[in-house]
Amino acid sequence: MRKNKVGDQRIQAQQYQFPYHYIPDLHRGRYLSRHWGFAPSYVAALKLVWNTLSCTAKAHEREWQHIDIGCGDGALIHYLSLQAGTAAWEIDGVDVDDSALAWARLFNPRKNFLSGRVECLEKKYDSVSLIEVIEHVDPELLPEFMRSIAKLMKPNGYLIITVPSTEKPVARKHFQHFSFESIGELIEPSFRILTIRGFERTSLFTRIAKDIRINRFASIDAPILNKFLVHQYSRLFDRQAGCGRIFVLATTRE
Fold it and tell me: What structural domains and CATH numbers belong to the chain?
């Protein structure tokens, strides 16, 4: 039997950067890994956020300060940090769910995560992201919520929003889904809208790829399928028809 004279425990420590022992799905017993059908669309949104922010931040020769509101487990912040690399970016996150923030801090130990409501924040930011957040807010509270976000932002700051489209049935965990018109009416009192476009558009080809990727007989984590779906879902369209999600870019009013 081959043995190592010295076991490098750094390898184990590095592997524990993700709790890989929790990957097997022990409850259903059908798969040895957990699968998230929404993953290609989620990755598409991450790319849209980065592409937008990187273009705006490069135009300013100073440290860029961004906050992700409703950051959850910090996945967007993790992705932005990897993409930004050594660039002068300061990225914060805020959420009301302390369990989600515990994961966020675990995976992003050098980032600043705040627990609480938006109204309690005092720092000013160059940009703000709300990725699949607004649909979780009581519609009666949304106008004041948007005003509070505007107060967080520096002059000419940028707001990036993604929300589920009315092309999809309203999920049980959501208060509502949005059309181009309804999301515009919500944002316009506090912000100047630069663009509203649809993404995650369903076509015959994306439907086939999605069904091949995950079905009742098998779950196939094939790079070619994943890359195809992410590419297709990240395309932006001027019409809402067929689009499962909506992308908004706005700026603060002077």
Answer: 37-252 (3.40.50.150)
Region of residue 39 (phi > 0: left; psi between -120 and 50: alpha; otherwise: beta): alpha
pLDDT, tens digit (0-9, with 9 covering 90-100), for 210-223: 998 888 888 888 88
Q: Please tell me the distance from the alpha carbon of residue 52 to that of residue 227, in angstroms, as a whole number.
A: 20
Question: Cβ atoms within 10 A of the Cβ of 54, count?
Answer: 15
Residue 188 is encoded by which pair of tokens?
Answer: 């316009």
Q: How far apart are the first and last CA of the chain?
A: 72
Q: Given strand 89-95, what is the order of strands in its sheet?
A: 112-115, 89-95, 64-69, 125-131, 153-164, 243-252, 191-201
- Per-residue model confidence as pLDDT tens digits over 38-90: 888 999 999 999 999 988 777 665 688 999 999 999 999 999 998 887 567 89
- Partners of 90 in the β-ladder: 65
What is the rounded distance in angstroms from the CA atom of residue 31 to the CA atom of residue 215?
A: 12
**Model pTM?**
0.87
